[in-house]
Amino acid sequence: MTIWVWIPISLSLVSLIGTWSVSSGSSTPENSLFSAVISAGAFLFLVFSIFHHAHIMERNANQSLLSRIALVFGVVASMGAFGAGNCNPGYLTFLHHLAAAISFICICFYTVLLTALTGKSTLTGFERYLYFMRIASSVFQVILTIGYTIMYAQSNYEAMHFSAVFEWMLSVNLELFELSFVVEFSFFHSWMLSNLLGQREELKPLILSMS
């Protein structure tokens, strides 16, 4: 086990804390806590996306296109979450909802793409076990995202209640999905980040000597 496993663990834990912030941070002092937690989660999700892409580029460069597409969705999802966390729904309702919708939709695509990459790539040797678990998780994420979108668009109390339930289930499912990447990150090494600079062979010795 390496220090890098704390990236998915921390991301999952921060997401769990964010799940229990009630009212989406619309009142004081809860709004400060909500913004801090969601901002931290968005940053960790961005780091997670970048590091996972670097891992794919090192071990399965033939899947670089699919990994780049996934990275785009991961980055946009992170930006959407940051926007939702820092737009108080009590004052910036439209921007909060727009950013949250972008984040949820991009996360849905991101989970599907990462599941596809799990089936196409060999990073750990445990893919045959992880793949089927992530298929179930990504299917669940798609169904819940559709249900959440439908219910959220309604204005009656029952639909709003169900949308809150869907949102909670989405968050829990995502947390478990993220936590499963402890396996991949236990095989991650710092020199893999040099793939993002396009100077892999030249920088590897330097990064290895510093790590």
UniProtKB/TrEMBL annotation:
Domain of life: Eukaryota
Pfam families: Frag1
Bilayer disposition of the protein: Multi-pass membrane protein
Ranges that cross the membrane: 34-53, 65-82, 94-117, 129-153
Record flagged with keyword Cell inner membrane: no
GO biological process: protein localization to plasma membrane
Domain CWH43-like N-terminal: 22-186
First and last residue of the signal peptide: 1-19
Subcellular location as annotated: Endomembrane system
GO cellular component: endomembrane system; plasma membrane
Key words of the record: Membrane, Signal, Transmembrane, Transmembrane helix
Family: Belongs to the DRAM/TMEM150 family.
Name of the protein described by the UniProt record: CWH43-like N-terminal domain-containing protein
